[in-house]
Amino acid sequence: MLKRTSLLKRLFILCCGKGRHQLLRTSLFCIFLSLLAGTILLLLLDKNPLEAYTSILQGAGILPKGRYAGRKSQLTDFMSLLNYTTPMVFAALSVAVALKCGIFNICVSGIMVFSGFMATVFVGYSNLDPILAKVLVVLIGALSGALVGILIGYLKHRFNMNEVVVAIMLNYIISYVVSFFIQTRFIDPITRQSVAVGQNARLTLFDHPVGNLKMEIALVFPLALLAVFAIKFMLDRTRFGFELKAVGSNSKASKYAGIHVGKAVVFTMLISGSLAGLAGVSYYLGSNASIQPRVLPSLGFDAIAVALLGNTTTIGSFFASLLVMVFDCGTTYMSSRMQVLREIAALIISILLLFSAIGIFFRNLADRYQQEAEAV
Amino acid sequence: MENLVEFRHITKRFPGIVANDDISLAVRKGEILAILGENGAGKSTLMSMLFGMYAPDEGELYVRGRQENITSPLVANSLNIGMVHQHFMLVENQTITENIIMGIEPKRRKFGLFPVVDLEASHEKVHQLSLNYQLEVNPRDKIEDVPVSTRQRVEILKMLYRNAEILIFDEPTAVLTPQEIESLLQTIKALRDGGKTIILITHKLDEIKRIADRCAILCKGKLVDVLDVATTSIQHMSALMVGRDVSFTLEKEEHERGAEVLRVENVSVLSLDHITTVDSVSFSVHEGEILAIAGVSGNGQVEIADAIAGLIPVKSGNIILSGNDITNASVRKRIEAGLSYIPEDRHAVGLILDFPLKENLCLKQYYRPPYSNERGILQHEAMAELGRSLIEEFDIRTSKGNDTLVRSMSGGNQQKAIIAREINLDSKLIIFVQPTRGLDVGAIESIHMRINKLRSEGKAILLISLELDEIMQLSDTILVMYNGKVQTIKRANELTKLQVGEYMMGVHVEKN
Description:
The complex is a heterodimer. By secondary structure, chain A is mainly α. Chain A starts with 6 loop residues before the first helix and ends with a helix. In chain A, a hairpin with a 4-residue loop joins strand 1 and strand 2. Chain A is globular. In chain B, the strands form 5 sheets. Chain B has a 6-stranded mixed sheet with strand order 6-9-10-3-11-12, sandwiched between helices. Chain B has a 6-stranded mixed sheet with strand order 18-19-20-15-21-22, with helices on both faces. Chain B has a 4-stranded antiparallel sheet with strand order 2-1-4-5, covered by helices on one side. The N and C termini of chain B lie far apart (51 Å). Chain B folds into 2 domains: 240 residues, 3-Layer(aba) Sandwich (Rossmann fold), CATH 3.40.50.300; 245 residues, P-loop containing nucleotide triphosphate hydrolases (Rossmann fold), CATH 3.40.50.300. Chain B is an alpha/beta fold. In chain B, a hairpin with a 2-residue loop joins strand 1 and strand 2. The longest helix of chain B is centred in the middle third of the chain and has 16 residues.
């Protein structure tokens, strides 16, 4: 008997099945699904979904708002979006690079706190020349992140310790040790956070006058863009990138081929760690200026889902970061304009991250349907 | 005598191979029926269908005169069919009793309310069972603490606990020492005398001769004959098992072997759990010589190859390649010193399945010019060039050439890719481990010709295989291993296939 594949299945295969750009199509399908889920949520709350999504885009500076406060415009909104996106790009790259080598780096949050704290303590409270201070912040951030990364890689390689367990423990250790020092030495009694760092050390210029506008300028955003292309080049074109990917796909075969697996793991974690460190300084000395004790930035964990949404490619991670931050930045405006609670808006982002994490499942499901369809 | 199980015109196909071809066979109640055949003759497949792990493509199965559709091991269990697998199916960190009662645990109610597993009663029951069948075990021991022979007894008890009437043993002696084999054979006999029906899958003729009542011989998926063991000679059975017509023979040119390339001196290797898998093995391989290591699976052959290639550490002894001591050298140093290795497991070790073909073909050379420059940048064009020439030269069939994902290629072509890569290294020593495993006849033939050609070119070749035919056909020197030790090492023309088989089973021990 001939069994016909149902229309729904065929549509699904079209979205996620084998063929050109399967990865991209699946990611877009995930985004579509989460928007659909958000739509249902908004309809249940009796809000107009189209208007809500428009206001998100307006809030993020992608679409023009109806009117602007003094010295603000669509451009200032967009620049602020870039400012918040910068740490996410670094963090997502950090996760993606580690995943390419088969390592699940969930220590991004901990590394962010560590590198942010180091830069704050060594440079943030100094009176150094602004240019020198900023360069130092970036260097210290990358370096301290790299140190933690190497530690994880070494423990994994030398003692065969599971990197997830190590990372979870390090997250706690870093978080508590750093908050101990903040609360005993650097606490601001009013905000209950660390004392804000000086403007000279911050990687973001706030209320910087450009023409008749005042905008936020993320100085390290170009560095994030550069990192995207540098990592892409490393993975695609260099000898080390080849070894990294080989170890990630089959470490036994890599050993057999003469690749030094341990060295590849440690170097990968060095790179991943320094990227997480850069995320830390661009977060704690960029879009923020102080560290809240005993709180791990959720951005470090969101980055895992963002990297997955971007199919653990570099370019993909960049655009996924941008997308998630559009939602993140736009929701403030949406909640104030549509009287939707911020939590609801945050929920939509969570749904997006959830769907992005199951993209692999969709791909496999579509492959299976496709095989069934071909078998019939 | 009544037929307990009947296979009627059973056919089972796997992609590219007919594993069982129209097999009709009856198993009588209360007998020991041996299923004899070489590796890949279809013995295990046939029994797996009786145990519900595969479904036959054609034909019917009758159990106790009724046609049964055995769709899973659970169904087989309910028909009182039990199987001891070659690889034990036991939970290491549970006790023997827990393993035996697993799935059908007796329950009692604590305080008349909470159901708990009645372990005490179970221990007692297992103890009784082991006494009844003279299979001594301590029910409270954990599996991880007991030796292999005890584990096997646990597997047998597991079947008996489930009231199995038909017991299938899949190569039960492959993992045992001679003494343990002796006691197992006694056990099997005792089970038969106790009224059980036994099916014994094996390729060891002496065991069949000693305990089996009848013997069914499979060759290349076909049932050749069913013989009465008492009235048949070992020679006759072996001739039937191998098949009279050897399909093709290699033209091997005679030539003197050249200089020594590889020398292995008293090498011992420990497994991860500190068991000696290779015990003080010495041999050497010369230019233009094929040295074959024969042995039943798991007697240390693969570990020797891994140790020479540097994948596992050597406990003691020396490995010398072309005059250089490489005992503790890195894998890459060994490759550069002139070592090519075609590993046993082409998926897990030989290839990176998610890499395109050209990168797999370049896997051992990507780091040096012309495939990367001195600054560490890959030269994709040079890689593609190499890929194209190897695909052409070795006739690797692909859908997209260089960019084909290796995962999507057929087993034969994957093996060709590995061999192409290793031969291209132009090493003095080439190690082949099971080079033709799972391949069809055409691919096997071309690989054999390739190995023979390398011999003529003056390469030193170490061939490790479970296929006796392959070894007899190709080798100049044969080394037989048993329990990690060298059983014998002789010129190939001084040994017959039967003799090699006897050495493999540990029948003769060479005094030296």
